[in-house]
Please model this.
Amino acid sequence: MIRGGARFLRKNEERVNALNVFPVPDGDTGTNMNLTLSSGVREMDKVPSSSRVGDLAEALSKGLLMGARGNSGVILSQLFRGFSKAVAGKETIGARELAEAFKRGVDMAYKAVMKPVEGTILTVSREAADMGVIRSRQTEDPVEVLAEMLSGARKSLERTPQLLPILAETNVVDAGGQGLVYILEGFLSALRGEEISGDDFFDDREDGTLASVAHGETAQSKIDPATIEHGYCTEFIIRRKDAGTFDEGAFRGEMGAFGDSLLVIVDDELVKVHIHSERPGDVLNFAQKFGDLTNIKIENMREQHAHWSGADAPSKRETVSPEPAAERKDHGVVAVASGEGVVKMFRSLGADGVIEGGQTMNPSTEDIVKAIRGLSADHVFVLPNNKNIIMAAEQAAELVDVPVTVLPTRTVLQGLTALIAFDPDADAERNREKMMKALEGVRCGEVTYAVRDSQVNGHSIKEGDFIGIYEGKIETVGGSLIATSRDLLQKMLARGGELVTILYGKDVTDAQVKELSDFLARNYPDVESEIHYGGQPLYFFLITIE
Model:
């Protein structure tokens, strides 16, 4: 069933991407949901097919959790996290359990979003689950329940423009909700035994497990096996005896004494542990005090090294560019950025790790976890620099064993502004306050192009038009890049400002940069301006005014 849903979503990935509200070239909801669900399926496929439903759902949930990308991916991971909790320990489930599990998932997804917005995937999932619960009281056939859920999801999706005016204005339905409908369609087809054509399987743009998060595979080939202090990679799940009194902090502290590379993921009833230890037996004896152990895996890393370090070692895309190893420090900073110049700027301002990602490829929760764990710091600040990455960053913060502060930076220039305010000698709370304060005085704009015809905010937009966006709202549209950029700057500076900072992208010419610089000098002689090469894709100019 799950594989059917994932396959059907993958077939329709680009259709979901095309539902982006703004006609700009960063519609990636379908991609994010596809990569997230594919990650869950890969993890689930490692569990024997004869396993209990509860075990399969748990593996799916963990894979989704670590592979979640973008807001839609994080919400999807929470839907199935709640589903997993509802069916934990069950051998099989029927119509009533299926409906209640989906309902539990909806409840968890709503809790994960600080300010839930109706007319989104949340609404579609909730109304679909409600229909499923009602139907489950009338039938014992899971197929009928799922069919009712799909019907409810489709009707809910059709109503999303009534709940979100921007959807009505752009004549589209919610992209995340559409993705969920495709998943449910795949579920139902699979349960009915219908063939779902598609690649067999699954997206290899990212692959990751709990162990890979802790290991960081690309570093393995550089390790001298003689220097491996804790030689056994140990993973297991604890089915807790007393969920109500479990002290996660104390458990992490005591477990950490057995080795290093500790990673602990805690659910209401389960604890998943990864640790490198020289005495795995002692680790298991200690863990058994907290409940029954399952999914135990112990691997000799000294033997594994022979396979990892050879010419046929696995090749992985490097998603984080860490600074050279240094002494452990009080604070570390991880930033998400794309573009050669942008990355260099974050580096020069003190970012310890830069994850390559942004508009068209949101990093996964696992990417961010790897970056955080790759730093030698007692407290880590994360700058997502994109509104669609903030939730994944917050989810990653819950999965690591060091304190993490996620600054809600929505643009690259907000991230740079926050980093300028960072003081390595101040404590974590003082830095959070200073960085948030710095963001208050920054207004952001950007210039990109339209990927389709559209009607937004009263603007009639044709494919290929240049678009000026100010604080998330399309303010100007035109056929000339420089004219559109000048118009945007005028609108932004109408509210005043003392400093204009512009990062120009990889497709901007020197002549265009000079033309915009001359415009500022001629028309705003009292406003200081700084123009730097960012090299970012898709967005010709990124602008801030302070």
